[in-house]
Design a protein that fits this description.
Elements: E1 6-8, E2 18-20, H1 29-39, E3 51-53, E4 59-65, E5 67-69, E6 78-80, E7 83-85, H2 87-98, E8 102-103, E9 107-108, H3 114-119, E10 125-126, H4 134-137, E11 141-142, E12 147-156, E13 174-177, H5 181-191, E14 200-203, H6 206-214, E15 220-224, H7 225-234, E16 237-249, E17 252-253, H8 260-272, H9 275-284
Parallel strand pairs: 4-8, 5-9, 5-10, 13-14, 13-15
Antiparallel strand pairs: 1-2, 3-4, 6-7, 11-17, 12-15, 12-16
Helix pairs in contact: 1-2, 2-8
Length: 285
């Protein structure tokens, strides 16, 4: 079972409303970003985290937003042939440029280091399929949501384990990426007495987790549905069942960053003009 890819119509974190997406075109990733950047290079600039260089190498006064992510979460963010790619990468760069800012240097670190790095000023925007929740909102501000997902339970294709619910994970070794909502689900299994804490596994990224799953070192992984499907399409693993969590992703910024409103406006424009649908078609279909 695969969750529908949904588009946020209202882009309002107080009342999430979604409708099924029906993207009908794909485009070259770099060509698309160049086109979006050309269209979006207008707008007011507020705050200061550096400025960009123009074609002549002189400071052109364009403010820079330095994004950060945690690779190893395809198709949202991962490394391919030494290049950082993915849906979040493209969407973040498009939103930054549409808002009138310059995309700075990407920071690639472990997922649970992203929020500390943001609050310490080492990066300006998190684009990492990060679920909006109350605990994180106490530390950072989120953009309006841009994606909805539930959790999936992955098992190895050659495994004798065929769970249909969380109760079937009793006494199994269950893992997730540290700092994620998948890890929260693992913690719930421990709290409910279904899984022993000694039988849980944490990974810096899900690529390592899937390798452990294929090698028989862990019995199941709990992971966001679209990423689980991506691994199931290319690795010797399959989705056993899903856990409905109703999560929504947002990009993270510092709570005092006035540019948040500009990024929200840019995300809304990207949805209205069909750019968002094109990126979904490219990365998920």
């Amino acid at each position: 079972m695969i969750a529908n890819i949904l588009r946020v119509e209202t882009l309002n974190t107080d009342s999430y409303e979604y409708s099924n997406m029906t993207p009908d075109a794909t485009i070259d990733r770099r060509s698309y970003l160049k086109a979006v950047g050309a269209v979006g290079a207008t707008g007011a600039v507020a705050g200061c985290t550096g400025s960009g260089d123009g074609e002549d190498g002189e400071d052109d006064g364009t403010e820079v937003i330095n994004p950060g992510t945690a690779p190893g979460f395809p198709p949202f963010e991962y490394t391919e042939d030494g290049e950082l790619v993915g849906f979040d990468v493209d969407l973040a760069e498009a939103a930054i440029e549409r808002a009138g800012y310059e995309v700075g240097e990407w920071t690639e670190i472990e997922f649970d280091s992203l929020i500390p790095s943001l609050t310490q000023g080492n990066l300006d925007l998190i684009a990492a399929a990060m679920t909006i929740n109350e605990e994180r909102q106490q530390q950072i501000a989120f953009t309006d949501p841009y994606y909805e997902s539930d959790q999936a339970v992955l098992v190895a294709e050659d495994s004798d384990l065929s769970p249909e619910s969380v109760d079937d994970l009793a006494d199994q070794r269950v893992g997730a990426q540290s700092g994620t909502t998948g890890q929260d689900e693992v913690d719930t299994l421990v709290d409910d007495g279904i899984v022993s804490a000694d039988d849980t596994r944490q990974y810096d990224n899900y690529t390592l987790g899937v390798q452990d799953l294929e090698n028989g070192n862990v019995d199941a992984l709990i992971i966001d549905i679209p990423v689980a499907q991506n691994f199931a399409d290319g690795r010797a693993v399959s989705i056993a069942f899903t856990i409905e969590t109703g999560e929504v992703y947002g990009m993270g910024m510092r709570q005092d960053d006035d540019r948040l409103a500009d990024i929200n406006d840019a995300l809304a424009e990207l949805q209205d003009d069909g750019t968002y649908d094109e990126l979904v078609a490219e990365w998920f279909e």
